[in-house]
Structure formats: C-alpha cells, structure tokens
Amino acid sequence: MKRGVMIGAGVALAAASAGVVIPSMRALATAHGGGAAVTGALVAAHVLGGIGGAALGPRLARRHGARRLVAAAFAASCAITAALALAPGVAALIVGRALDGACHLLGVTALLAAGVTGEPAQRARTAGWLGMVLVLGVGAGIGAGGAVPASAALLVAAALTAAALVCAVPALDDAVPPARHAAVRARDVVAPPALIAAGERFVFGLLSVTMPFAMTARRTGMILGCFMLASVVVMPWARRAAQRGSARQLACRAATVLAAALALAGVDGVLAGPAALAWAIVGGAAAGGLYASTLALVAAHERVDDRLAAMAAVHAAGNAGHALGALGAGAALTLVAPHVVVAFAGAGVVSLGVAAAARQLRPPPVLARATLRP
Fold first, then answer.
1. Residue 367 is assigned to a structural domain of this protein
2. Residue 212: which domain range?
3. Of 64, 78, 268, 340, whose CB neighbour count within 10 A is largest?
C-alpha cells in the first residue's frame, strides 16, 4: 500500500510539472519576440522530445532497471527545466524543452510501467488509478499555472519534478524485466492503444495552443483544468465499462462524443463564452474514456515486457499526436480563428485515429462451419 501511494504521488507531481508551464507558453514566446508559431513550437518541442524518451524506455529499463532509470530521468529533467529559466533566446528554449521532454516522459513511462503489476484484475485497477492520477496531476498543474507568473513557471515545474523524484524512487527496486517475448507481434501489442492515444493527445495539443490566443492565461487554465478534471471523474466508470464490454467499444463511443464536442467548438463564441465550462466537461469526459481504453489494453498483457512496450508506445504516439496538434495549431492560427482550428482538425483526427485503432482491434472473422450432406 505504501509503495503504491509513493508511486502515485510521484506520477501526480511529475504530471503537474508538465502542466504548470502550459498557460505560460505564450508569455514565454512573446518575451523572446515570438508569436503563435513559436508558442506551438515550444509546446511541440517538449512532446516531440518525449517520443524519443518513451521509445528508449523499454531498452533502458531492461538494461538498468526502473529505479535507476526514473532517478536519472527526473534528475535530468529537473536540472534542464531550471536552466531554461535563464535561456538566452527562442532557439535555446526550444532545444531545452525537447531535452526536458525526453527525460521527463522517459521517467514517467518507466514509473507507470513499474507500478502496474499483479493479477489481471489488479493490473486493470492499478492502471486505471494511475491514469487518473496522471490526468489529475496535469489538470492541477494547468490550473496552478494560470495563477503562476510566467517568469516563475519553469522554476515551479523544476521543483515539482524534484519532489516527484523524492517520492517515487524509494518505492522502486532494481529488478530488470526480461527480454520481450519474440512470439508476440509488436503490432498486436502496441498499435491499438498507440493509435487511440495519438488521436486523444492531438486534441490536447490543439487546445493548449489555441486557447491562449482565444482567452486569458487564467481562463485558459480554468477551462483546460475543467477538461482534465472531467477526464479524471469519468475514468473509473470508463474502466469498469471496458472490463464489462470491450475497449474497442468504449473507444468508439468516447471518440464519437469528443468529435461532436470539437465540431460544436466550431460555433463562434463557444470557447470564449459562458458555455465553455460545459463544453470542457463533456469533451474532457470523452477524452477520459479514450484514455481509459488505452490503459485497459495495456493492462491486459500478461508479460511485464509487453506491458512496458505498450506503455511506451502509448506515450510515444500520444506525444506525436500532441506535437502535431500544437504545431498545426500554431501554423493555422496565422490564417484562421481558433474555434475553426479546434473544430475541423480535432474532430477529423480523433475520428480517423480511433477508426484505425478499432480496425486493429476487430476480431478475425469466424469461418462458416461446413455442412455435411446426408
């Protein structure tokens, strides 16, 4: 029990450290002479770096063990984030954000994989709770980031990462997972949850860049915080729904609701008006259902090496979607209004991503049984 609490606290603090800087990205870009494109690049650099970190996770964990890997990754992330407060220009900020993203997500991925252990039912519960903690941590970080001065956001993020290191590392051991089972095809392990995660994170990349240009930093923190909180609230129900039915069915239904919410955001004034909170609750609940479906797929694998590979794929693909959303939004904002960017790009990518994942998850057709003639 104590081990689980420490790992959960580490996940929450690490997630909050990533969220707390999001509302300040526009101010940081503006302070160095940049606009929408630079804001998108700063968000995308962090998540693009995370793709490399997540991809290296399984190999480094098999070589060094989770404890050493998490300790080294979080220590490096803390140092890099603190140093970024003194970055001399945009190029240094972008490079530093990419390096920090690699270290940060490497540590988070290894920490989550180390925490999901036990029998199948226990793994499903643990994965669900850790997923809730992760989303809640990001949401709390975003909410706090709306009230933190932009000049202090990076230092606050570094402090939160240091706290995550102190909480999580003592709960881990140096056990090294075995080599991945050759008989299990990589596509069957990683593709379905990775595709779903890519679509869901693409939406968040869009929102994290477009909202600061449609509203104040405080309102951005409030709306995105409600979005993440709604995701957390719905995840226990979504996890149970996935266990009773199927992860594919849950993903398809959640994607339908999220795509509809994003299409509604195309109505001028929805994101900036009083309906934005209701919109954030509905959209966040649908996003939470998508994330719960990926965790159910990850926890279903019996072998620890397959769970590690699937967890790494979820975060790498999720970061790729996040980066595409942020970069696309940064470029599109120079041409069209924020609500148009969210509506058309978000709804389209979510629908396509989950449709592709559902195709991967569809069971093989049952051959008709031959009838014997008398």
1. no
2. 2-171+180-361
3. 78
